[in-house]
Amino acid sequence: MTKRMGFLVRTFMVSIVLLVGCSNGDTAKKESTDTEKKIVYATSKDINDMNPHFYSGSMPAQGMVYESLVENTEDGIKPLLAESWEVSADGKVYTFHLRKNVTFHDGEPFHAEAVKKNIEAVQSNASKHSWIKLSTKILDCHVLDEFTVELVLSEPYYPTLLELSMTRPYVFISPKNFVNGGTKDGVNGYNGTGPYKLTEHKGDQYAEFEANENYWGGAPKVKKIIAKVLPAGETTFLALQKGEVNFVFTDDRGTNSLDVNAMNQFVESGKHQMIRSQPMNTGIIVANSSKNESPVHERAVRKAFWHAIDRETISKQIFEGTEQPAYTLFSSNVNYANVEVEKRGYDLEKARKILEEAGWDIGNAGEIRTKNGKPLAMKLYYDVNSSSQKTQAELIQNTVKRIGVHLEIIGEESSSIANRRSTGDYDLLFNQTWGLAYDPQSTIAAFTSKSSYYHTTRGIERADELYKKIEEVMVSTDEEQRKSLYTDILTIVHEEAVFIPITNGRVTILAPKNLQGISFKQTQFELPFERMYFE
After folding, report:
1. Distance between CA atoms of 289 and 293, rounded to whole angstroms?
2. How far is residue 198 from each of residues 50, 51, 224, 248, measured CA to CA in Å?
C-alpha cells in the first residue's frame, strides 16, 4: 500500500482542461459536431510509463486505454470484457465467459489465451502487487476454450470481482507488447482494448489519445484527448480566463488546480457548470495505539482528541464547503459501511471531562495536563506539500491546547510519513482511506498490514478479535455474515478511536454548459471520457 498510496494521492491531484477545436468565421458555426472537438487535459505530471501492470503511469490515462474483465458501478459489478461469469459453490473458482469480436488496438484478438497471459504476467511479479490481496490468492488461470477462462484461488475471497475491476493491475495489454514473455521487464507498446488509444507521447510535454473507432462498445463521440503537462494554479486560471481552457477535474485536498471561489466565478459567468461527485474517501488522523510511551496509547486520550476537532470549521473555512464533516471512517455510500455508531462531535467540555476521568490533571488554565508526572504531549505529522493538511494541523494544535494538550505539528514528505506509518514511529499522522473503489475491503485489510495500519490497531484491547474478524470477512461466501462482520469491525475501531475522521473528499468538475454525458466512476482517479459529448 505504501508505494501505491504515494502515487495515487499525487495522481488524484490532476486537473483536466478542455479545448474546443473549430475553424474560424462561419465555418466554425457549422462545424459543431462532436467529431470537431477534442479534450485537452492539463496534468501536473507526465503520463509516464503506461505499462498497465506497473504503478508509475497516470491512472486517468491508463483508464482510457486498458480494460478489465468486469466493471465496478453504483449498482454493483457489471460485465465489461467478460459478458458473464459463475462462481463455484466453494468460492474458489471463477469462470468467465469473454466478449467476442474484441480486438486490441494493434488488431490482435482478445480471447482466453490473452487473458491467461496477462494474468500470468501480473502474477510473475508478485512482490510488486502484494498490496492487492487477490494477487496472493490466485493459484492458476486455465483456458477452457477460446472465449472461456477459469481463475482458481487458494481460498474463497469475496473482493475478487472488485479487485479484478480496478484500473490496475488486472487489465489487458496485447501480448505482442510483452517483453521477454511478460510485462515485468517492461513493454514495447501500449495497446489495450479501451475506447482510446495512445498515438503520440512527448515526455513532460503532452500525450495524445485518439478514439478507438473499432471499440466494441461503440466509437467515442469525442475523437481526441490530449494530456498536456502544465503547472497547476494561476496557469490554469489564466487559461480559463482566455478561453483556452474550459474544463477542470480536481480534488479538494491541498493541491487544487483552482479553488472553489475561482470555480464559482466561472459558473456565475453563465458559461460553465460545476458538478460534484458523491463522497469518494475520508480524510483521517491515524492514532498509534501501540506506542506505549505516548499518551496516544490511551483510548481516553484518543476520544478526547476526537471531540476536540472542529470539523464544521475545517469544512467551511479550509475546504470552503467542498468537503463535508465526517464522523465515521467511511461515508454511508461505501458498501457495508452504513453502521450505527456513536457520533462524536466537537465538544471541548466533553473532551476535558474524558481526560479528567482518565487521570490527566491540569493546574491553571492554559497549562498542559499531566499524569504521573508525564505531560500530555503528542506529535502530529502532516504532508509538507499539502497546504490543507498544514492549515488543519495548525487549527487542531490551537484547539487542543484549550483542553490541556500540547501538540507539536511536523511537516514531512509523504514518503517519510508513509515510512513512519509502517515502522510505528509516530503518535498521530494525516492519511486518508483508500477510496470508493477500494473500500471498505482494502483499507480494512490494511489494518493488519505491517506496512500500513498494524501499529494503529495492534495496541487496542480487542486487536486479536479484530484481526480474526477481518480474516473471516475476506473469505466469507455469505452476504449476511459479511454484513455482520463488517459491522463488528467498524464498531471496534470506532469505539477505540484509532481512525479519527475529519472530512469526506469528493471530485469536482468545472465544464462548459454544452458538454453532456459527464459522470463519475466508482473511483476518484478516472473519468469516463467515452461517455461525453457536446450538444
Report:
1. 10
2. 9, 12, 10, 21
> Which pairs count as long-range contacts for 86-94, CB under 8 Å and 24+ apart, including other chains?
90/156, 90/477, 91/153, 91/155, 91/156, 91/157, 91/158, 91/475, 91/477, 92/152, 92/153, 92/154, 92/155, 92/156, 93/150, 93/151, 93/152, 93/153, 94/150, 94/151, 94/153, 94/160, 94/161
pTM for this model (two decimals): 0.81
pLDDT value of position 24? 39
Torsion over CA: 113, 115, 116, 118 (sign)? positive
The confidence band for 27, taking pLDDT boundaries of 50, 70 and 90, is very low
Residue 156, helix vs strand vs coil: coil
pLDDT at 245: 72
Cell 514531512 identifies what position? 412
Which residue in the block uniquely carries the three cell numbers 457495508?
336
Give yes or no for a contact between 285 and 502, defined as CB atoms under 8 angstroms apart.
yes
Could you give the 3-state DSSP secondary structure of residue 151? strand
pLDDT surpasses 50 at 202: yes
Please, are residues 94 and 170 in contact by the beta-carbon 8 Å criterion? Answer: no
Q: What is the pLDDT of residue 251?
A: 57
Instruction: Provide mean pLDDT across the span 277-306.
Output: 96
Nearest CA to 329 out of 502, 464, 529, 167 is that of: 502
Residue 283 CB neighbour total at 10 angstroms: 26
**What value does the mean pLDDT of the chain take?**
89
Beta-carbon contacts of residue 265 (< 8 Å; ≥ 6 apart): none
| 374 or 12, which is more confident | 374
Does an H or E element contain 38, and which? strand 38-43
b/e per residue, 319-352, with b = 16+ CB within 10 A? beebbbbbbbbbbeebbbbebeeeebebeeebbb
